[in-house]
Automatic annotation (TrEMBL):
UniProt xrefs under PROSITE patterns: PROTEIN_KINASE_ATP, PROTEIN_KINASE_DOM, PROTEIN_KINASE_ST
EC number(s) recorded for this UniProt protein: 2.7.11.1
Biological classification of the source: Eukaryota, Metazoa, Ecdysozoa, Arthropoda, Hexapoda
Residue numbers binding ATP: K59
Pfam family, any one: Pkinase
Keyword Transferase: yes
SMART domains: S_TKc
Family to which this protein belongs: Belongs to the protein kinase superfamily.
Top-tier EC class: transferase
Organism: Anopheles gambiae (African malaria mosquito)
Name used for this protein in its record: non-specific serine/threonine protein kinase
Length: 428
């Protein structure tokens, strides 16, 4: 049967003045469904636009109510990236505050969200050399941030865009050593949780900072005094996720359970007790509701005791979602679940064989980008993976002082890539 529905073209608005001013006054509210949406996240919506003759993505932060205030306040954090110009960081071009909305204008390019690429690993594994190249890009972006006294505070695969090379204005990513040229480049994005390291007040409230499953223990405590090593912890969790192809703590649905055990019990994504923690989620310590070791947003006025007058400490999954995680959301802290579909990519691939309303990754595309184009002996692969495990274990040490800094992490990844390159040259 032939459809009689007409396809309404999506608007790609120009954000040059005066169009931008008109948009801030009333256009978005009146034509919300008309704009080409590139992504939706916990802080707002991203639409397709142009600015001074170049394609841009515009993040729109609403200021309609107190519930959305934390999203709008993140505009100040986004401004930290205004002066960052680096190949591995999404360039923020302009920050525009308004009475109803705040706007973040950033570069737009063909690409995929790393979270979605990792989600395909079980059926289409990413070759080890590509994992290392991806990690090298992320840590290079962090090195640049830290050199400029900026901490990202929300490093995770969802905030990494894998750009697809090949466009006229998109340079091909360089090879490492004697490795073949790659057709992608990874860029760190979303500075809505970022912060300047100096000056910093010890009593500053650390809300709107990060995602529970990737947050360092010192951030979960909320006691202050954190350093750039907080980003290294999150990088370690991201490194584990890329290596394993699984969501961190996927057996545990309650974020508060994760936070408590990360801080008090040293729980990490590779802990053999992770499954046991998931099974014991209904048997939390009676004092958990009043513990002083967690971030203030995790000590909100909520009760973890179940209803029905029994006075027990158990609670259902439904209660967890509606109460515990709602508190986290109100504080501006992202809540993620295994069953939750990853946020659509901010900068989607614009290809005629991939409709804008789908954005599903093409299997052939994955194999082309991340296929195994190196001959590596099996024992060398095992050694490389073990070195990755050793590195991410150091990155998520409980004591921040025991974690390596970003340059040291980058040097370790470079060393691993050099081993692959040397082996490839020796095999010729």
């Amino acid at each position: 049967m032939t459809s009689t529905e007409l396809t309404v073209p999506k608007i790609e608005i120009s954000f040059d003045t005066p169009n931008r001013d008109r948009f801030l006054r009333d256009d978005f509210r009146n034509k919300r469904e008309s704009y080409a949406v590139l992504g939706r996240g916990s802080y707002g919506v991203v639409i397709k636009a142009s600015y001074r003759g170049r394609p841009v993505a515009v993040k729109i932060l609403e200021k309609r109510s107190h519930r959305h205030r934390c999203r709008y306040d993140s505009l100040l954090n986004e401004a930290n990236a205004l002066n960052l110009r680096h190949d591995n960081i999404v360039t923020v071009l302009k920050i525009v505050p308004g009475a109803q909305y705040g706007l973040v204008l950033m570069e737009r390019f063909d690409g995929y969200c790393l979270q979605r690429i990792i989600g395909h690993q079980r059926n289409h594994p990413i070759a080890v050399q590509h994992k290392l190249l991806i990690l090298c890009d992320i840590i290079s972006g962090l090195c640049f941030c830290h050199r400029h006294n900026i901490v990202h505070l929300d490093v995770k695969p969802q905030n990494v865009i894998v750009t697809v090379s090949g466009a006229a204005d998109q340079p091909v990513a360089p090879a490492a050593g004697n490795l073949p040229l790659r057709k992608y480049l990874c860029k760190l994005c979303d500075f809505g949780s970022s912060m300047m390291l100096q000056p910093w007040q010890p009593n500053e409230t650390l809300v709107n900072r990060g995602t529970i499953r990737y947050m360092a223990p010192e951030l979960l405590r909320g006691t202050g005094g954190f350093t750039a090593r907080a980003d290294i912890y999150s990088f370690g969790v991201t490194m584990w996720q890329l290596d394993e192809g699984r969501f961190p703590y996927e057996e545990i649905t309650c974020n508060e359970v994760i936070a408590y055990n990360v801080v008090k019990k040293g729980l990490r994504p590779d802990s053999i007790t992770t499954m046991a923690f998931g099974r014991r989620a209904t048997n939390l310590p009676a004092g958990l509701r009043d513990i002083g070791c967690l971030h203030g947003s995790l000590r909100g006025p909520i009760s973890l005791t179940g209803g029905g007058g029994g006075g027990g400490s158990s609670f259902t999954g439904r209660f967890e979602t509606d109460a515990v995680d709602d508190v986290l959301k109100r504080q501006g802290i992202a809540v993620e679940y295994r069953a939750k579909r990853p946020t659509r990519v901010i900068c989607p691939t614009e290809r005629p064989d991939q409709p804008m309303n789908d954005q599903e990754l093409n299997v052939a595309r994955i194999m082309e980008m991340f296929g195994d184009n190196c001959t590596i002996a099996n024992n060398e692969r095992i050694q490389l993976r073990q070195s990755m495990r050793t590195l991410y274990s150091k990155c998520w040490a409980s004591d921040p002082a025991c974690r390596p800094d970003a340059p040291a992490v980058r040097a370790a990844i470079h060393q691993a890539l050099e081993k692959i390159a040397l082996g490839k040259r020796a095999g010729k």
